[in-house]
Amino acid sequence: MLERLHSLVGDFRRTRVEPDRLQQLQAELVAESTLDVPYLVLIVSSCAIATFGLLSNSAAVIIGAMVIAPLMLPIRGLAFGALVGDTQLFRRGLVAVTAGTLLALVISWGIGLLISLPSYGSEILARSKPNLLDLGIAVVAGGISGYAMVQPKISASLAGTAIAVALMPPVCTIGLGLAQANWPLSWGATLLYLTNLLGISLACMVTFLVTGYTPLKQARKALVWTLLLTGVLVVPLALSFFELIGQSRLEASLRKVLLNRTLTFQRVELLKSEINWLTSPPQVYLSVRAKEAITPKQVRLLEAFLEREMHQPFALIFTVSQVEEVRGDSSVPPPTNSKPNP
Predict the structure, then answer these.
(1) Per residue in 137-181, pLDDT tens?
(2) Which of 170, 256, 257, 265 is 20 to 30 A from 38 in CA distance terms?
């Protein structure tokens, strides 16, 4: 078994691509890295769909935009051009990525200004706090994207790859953040965009290298620069990752305190909770089902209790679904202390 594995590794190292196949790959990358009308049409369409999906908080619509977004294609050309020193291909890819990004940014910013929602939903907020997990996703998905280029038989996986590591929703989130002058949101989405961009580029370079499309000596400089740029992003991503762990623990503790140590939540059913950590104090959205209305005084008392228990303030925002008991015999009044059936 070990001898077989050693033989496979040796064959892999000796892999070299025929010149005809190398020229064919370069021609394909040039074609998909060209800034032309179809590319711009896809940019405009995917940006509009993604922006409307983000504003309506619809994951299904956002996924649809991810599938048709073309930004990943010129990134492969950019990566290969940098790897083999093809300045023309690198320039084409860079121009296409830059133009597509700026166009999407302007469109999403304009839509955000036009609609002017007072607050954004979870789909937008979820793209404001990238971490090391997002970098891992970008690297793996970028590797699959690069391998699909050299192995056409798996090109059908590109749609799933585009969904896994999408570039368009982060760009649209940047524009929506700018429309609200929400700088933390725009910065977080920018970090996510750069994470995906560099993760895809790095993984594509490594894939082209190990599949024999360029020797290590030729690719070393581009790989080192890409690794250095990615390493710069690791610092804020790591900080965000540990912050995410702390927030998750804090959110679990907050739910436990509310459910087990408050009288209000003995009379209501908690359906869902979300926390917007971008605001100060953090806003806690609580979706509950209750038979009686929740008053502003109860909310203020709960906020004061949480500040004492959690040692930091929270703003509670309730969404209450009223439970109404309906009987066939209207002459018999319902018991005052009855508990509704689940």
Answers:
(1) 888 888 888 887 777 666 655 555 555 567 899 999 999 999 999
(2) 170
26 closest CA partner among 95, 96, 94, 86: 86
Helical residues (DSSP H) of 85-212, grouped into ranges: 87-115, 122-125, 132-150, 158-164, 168-179, 183-210
Sheet architecture: strand order including 268-276: 268-276, 283-290, 315-322
Contact 32, 76 (CB under 8 A): yes
Tokens found for residue 342: 């689940």
| 99: number of Cβ within 10 Å | 15
- Tracing tokens 């580029």 back to the chain, one arrives at 201
Question: Strand 283-290 to strand 268-276: parallel, antiparallel, or no bridges (unpaired)?
Answer: antiparallel
HEC string of 219-261 equals: HHHHHHHHHHHHHHHHHHHHHHHHHHHHHHHHHHHHHHHHHHH
pLDDT in tens, 10-33: 544 455 667 777 788 888 888 888
pTM of the model: 0.77
Q: Say which residues have a Cβ less than 8 Å from residue 22's Cβ, sequence separation at least 6.
A: 213
CA distance 227 to 250: 34
The tokens of 168 are what?
Answer: 């368009």
pLDDT per residue as tens digits for the range 175-219: 999 999 999 999 999 999 999 999 999 988 998 888 888 888 888
- Going by C-alpha positions, the residue among 113, 121, 107, 100 that lies closest to residue 43 is 100
Asked whether the beta carbons of 89 and 81 are under 8 A apart, the reply is yes
How far is CA 157 from its chain centroid? 19
